[in-house]
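Allow me, if you will, to draw on your knowledge of protein folds for a short while. Thank you for your consideration; the sequence and its tokens are set out here:
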Amino acid sequence: MLAKLNIPSDLEFIDYELFNSFGVKCYIKRDDQIHSEISGNKWRKLSLNIEKYKQGKYEALLTFGGAYSNHIHATAALGRDMEIPTIGIIRGEELTPDSNATLKAAAEAGMQLVFVSREEDSWRYERDYKELLRRKYGNVLVIEEGGANYLGVIGCTAIVSEIDINPDYYILPSGTGTTAAGILMGVDEQKVISVPVFKKGDFIQDEIANLLQVSGLGEVEVAEKLKDLILATNYAFGGYGKFNQTLIDFINQVFNETGLKLDQIYTGKMFYALCDMVKTGVIPSGSTVVAVHTGGLQGTSSIADQLVFEV
């Protein structure tokens, strides 16, 4: 039985000295509080896919992810609570269910984890992989990595519809670009800042463009929407899953001043980018920003001894 969801999630003003000194108002969209495990943008990307699962009488959900995938963690928890069998195809043949807290939690929730090499994982971009997977695993509903499909994008448009202010900017961390695509679908001229968590994050723009097309926008409409997209690609801290002491110290400093908990994989990098863009004037004085907290706090368990807050 799925626990009650906190929808719409709260929008909280953050009183942070840096923003105050530069004349910027910042609000946090607390999607991390939607659910204790299925939090952040994960429920939004999964909710309509779950409806498709129910209507199609599938036997299981099958999806993909990396070692620290919040999507894998959330899908496993959702499957456990709704009594839906789940299968996760995980990049990294060297990994095991005990490699980190995210994978351990997914396995404990009942997800069948299948570890493949990065070379094996790449084939799904080249063939009719869904049919091949169904032959191997049965009548499964295949959900793209990170919920990156039409239903995932449409689910994320609700982030904008729940907000009753008119910000100048939205900012969020990006893995697949699905949430950024959903927010772009929902905004009207506001700028959307995507902070890729990968070392070479420029590919996110092509992913977002493709998701917008999949979601029904024509070529001209996509081009117009992309004018509102700002890619902040210099804040990956070395790549996916990578971080350093500077980021850890920053996460602790933000918590000490505001009480806001961030993680080192996604939201910490996003908030660091936001602060830097305010300091450098990319986000000018007088602006109002909505930062989307996409959850993922379970990932902080691996660095719990370095944090000033309880994980």
